[in-house]
Amino acid sequence: MPIGKIRNGKLIITVLYATLPDRRSQLKTTAPLSDNLPSPGKLAAEFDTLILSASGWRKIFTGSGDEEDRNSAIGGANTVIAALMADTFASFILDNPEFGRDVLIGRDTRPTGAPIADIFCRVLIARGLSVLYAGIAAAPEIMAFARTTGPFAYISASHNPIGHNGVKFGSRDGGVFDRDRAAVLAEAFRARMNSGDPVQKAATLLSACDPAALASVYEREQTVKKSALAAYEVFSR
Questions:
Q1: pTM of the model
Q2: Of 81, 172, 174, 232, which sits 20 to 30 A from 143 (CA to CA)?
Q3: Which domains does the chain carry?
C-alpha cells in the first residue's frame, strides 16, 4: 500500500510495512447491522431525505434526525445508506481500472463521521480494495494526497449543521468527480437502493470485511494522516 513522505523537498511514495500502536481493542467486535435491522419503511423515509448533487451527497445522519444532535450514532437505516454508498463507489472504481485499487478515505470532525468512515472502510475492504484511512484531515490534504494514491471519498457536510453529513467522491487527479461521473455514480446508487433487498445487501457486505485487514487500516491511520499533510505541503509550495 503506497504511503507518501517528504525527502529532500520531494514527495516520495513507498510501501509501508511498519505499524503504529495496536488499535484492535478499539474496533467493534461485531459488524454494523449485526442486529436491529431497519424496516423497509424507515429506510425509504431516510433515503428520501438524501440530497445527491454533483458536489457531494448529504443528509442528516444522526439517528435522532435532529440536525443539531451531536451524538455519533447514525441508526440502522443510515448505516444501510452509507454501506450502499460505499458499495457503489467500490463498483465504480473496479469498473475503471485506471483508478487502481487503492482508495483514500478522510473525514472532518463531525461526530457521525467516525461511524460513516468505518462503514466505508469495511465495505471497500469487503470489495477487495486497499484502504488508506487518514482519519480527521482537511479536504485539501486528502485531495493533494489522492494525486499519488488513488480515488478518494471525503466525509463532510461543509457548512451545514453538525447533525448533517455526507460524502464527496474524487479521482486520482485530486479533484471531485465531474458532473458526468457524479451523475453515473448517483444513478448507480439509486439503483442499489431500489432493487432487491438493500438491507440484506448492506449487512452481507459489512459482515464480509476481514477483521485483520480492518485492524491494519486503523493501525496505519496516523501515518496516512501525516502523509496527507506532507502531500499538501508539497502541493501548496
A1: 0.88
A2: 81
A3: 42-232 (3.40.120.10)
